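Structure ticket #2291
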Amino acid sequence: QVHLAESGGGLVQPGGSLRLSCVASGRTSSTYALAWFRQASGKEREFVAAVTRGGDRTYYADSVKVRFTIARDNTKNTVYLQMSSLKPEDTAVYYCAAGAWASRSRPADYDYWGEGTQVTVSS
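Resolution: structure written out below.
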């Protein structure tokens, strides 16, 4: 069992930056790929970014490439999502997820989920 806890969400102006964190706990949590998904109101949950177990390879949705960076620190059991040049369309609840393969982008491919943190981009 892996428990995931997100933090760092909030209100930010368009063009601003925000860093999300997700602490993973539980047995063998470092053996999972970690990912971020987001879900805007009235929309389906969508893939944002993922990082492999060792942190050596990353994957991004086209909509966030260049603007967002995912990274993990296995000594702290934490994955980060650095978000910059934020747009109103980035507004959503952001979820941390753990799964077997970072190359997978479907929610069904991930086994464990956090409760989410709200990110609102508005002036």
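Closing remark: The longest strand covers residues 18-26.
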